[in-house]
What does this fold into?
Amino acid sequence: MIWDLVAMVTAGVGGAGILLLVARVLRVKLPRWAVPATAGVAMFVFAVWNEYAWYPRVRDALPESVRIVSAPADAAFYQPWTYAFPIVRRFLAVDLGSAIHSETEPQQFVAPVMFIERWTPVRQLPFAFDCANGRRTDVFPGGRIEDAEWVTPGPEDDLLATACAGG
It folds into this structure.
């Protein structure tokens, strides 16, 4: 978060500096409000761009073994432009590269599910998937699939469908 603030201030200083340089080269006298207004606009534009660029940057930095399950786009009242152009601030992913398959049941495996949200640390939970029977479970006692309390969410469950398609 601190680096975003530093980058935003740098964008403001850069925008104002470019305006001053152009005014000096063209030998134009600027109104008193032009430099601070340019700095403010540059900071605002950078902040909006940075919010929209967060999801693609994080998504592209994930290993190839990670599959995105869902990435809902939201709107917020304090950012009215997001009603026209919704923004992704959080997403759910499953890391199939870290999956541990059952020795007895080849269609059962445990994989970490990541909850990734802007401005918060990544949270991971182990989920067990049984692709043959169309069921899954999240936190289970003792870390053993045999002790899990399975749920059968149905074919519309994106988490189970994503895990089983790639697992």
Observations:
- Residues 1-61 form one domain.
- The chain has three helices and eight strands.
- The CA atoms of residues 1 and 52 lie 15 Å apart.
